Amino acid sequence: MAPERFHLAWFLNFVADSWNGQWGSGGMPWDGEFYVEVAKDLERAGFDYVVIEDKLMVSDAYGGSTESNLKHAIAPKHDPVPLATLMAYNTSRLGVVPTMSTSFYPPFLLARLCATVDHIAHGRFGWNIVTSAEDRSAQNFGLEKLYEHSLRYDMADEYLDVVTQLWDSWEPDAVVRDRASGTYADHTKVHQVDFRGRFYSSRGPLNTVRSPQGRPVLCQAGASPKGRNFAAKYADTIIAVGNTPAEMKAYRDDIRERAQGHGRKPDDCKVLFLVSPVVDETEEAVRAKVQRWISDPDYIEHVLTELSSITEVDFSQFDLDQPLPEDLTTNGERGSLESFMQRGSGKTLRELVGLGISPGIELVGTPDSVADKMGELMAEVGGDGFLLTCPSGGLTRRYVTEITDGLVPALQRRGLTRTSYGFEHFRDNLLEF
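The structure assignment produced for this chain is given below.
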């Protein structure tokens, strides 16, 4: 009996590559060409999509200063939407999913942008929905602090309502191009929205043609109960983290049950688990590689600086050789904080960072052994795939090649991932299996 196939996607940031590493490219220029090469490699390997993460500030959460954030090139971070457009223009099947925040993009602007880029991408555009999680970002937009976590999701729910109505303001056949009457678009098929809600209002209609997919593929990372419910209601694909197969299965089962509660088919929402596979020719070589990474003081500081940035918890205040306080809370990314703290009960901060070489399940070994582990995990969890990200520092061509030319062929030989695309549009490929 043939194994069930699963999906692959990639998670990255529009930041400097591994600029000072042995396999880096120097961290310049900022024209996006490095990431275009990555996109081409991912398409060649049959990945469904690439997510481009974003933050709207230079963080000073770690140690109360921007020093560490800039030292480790966590910033600068450039706008992901132009990069997604460039990636799409240079590929033909790979989905491109930039991050945009419901807290700072006006709904009409975002709806129009998505429709425009989906046309440029020939139906391969997606939107990674975030509410943002940093007061420093809010302060760049004239606010003193970010809205409370629960309120942000209430606002996001209404936000999705209005942008969906804007996307639907043009009927699929509104463009008639009738030469006899000289009519380009039928005005009876383009509708005002007149949306007035608790948080947002918009007259509509969009002044852009309905996009090839109707709306972008929607991606979201819901970890809290409210976040999970939001993701299950709207997302076509969800970014998830699980530290054990049981956690992964429980999360996916919960999302599918919630999706069904919203009147959706559970299979229409693909849950992809964030992992950082590390492969090499032998088990000895790959273990030595990992040990070099996790014992590097710069690596430890980099991980904690990045974690501080997304959670707004200053990890410089804690002793590396003591466990973290159990009562840590945040108005930032709660899921990221909880996932990090749950990696090992009673472990020191240094040990938690060492475990963090791969978010979630550890996938370290030869391409064949890691491919076997990924297949076993999906069989146990039930689906739907993995979202891969670089495990240490900046991204390198070497790491991409180890995955696309080492791990992926091992997966394909086992019949676990696609060898070609069945459709032109992103959503259709996502729903293929």
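Interim note for the steering committee: The chain has a mean pLDDT of 94. The radius of gyration is 22 Å.
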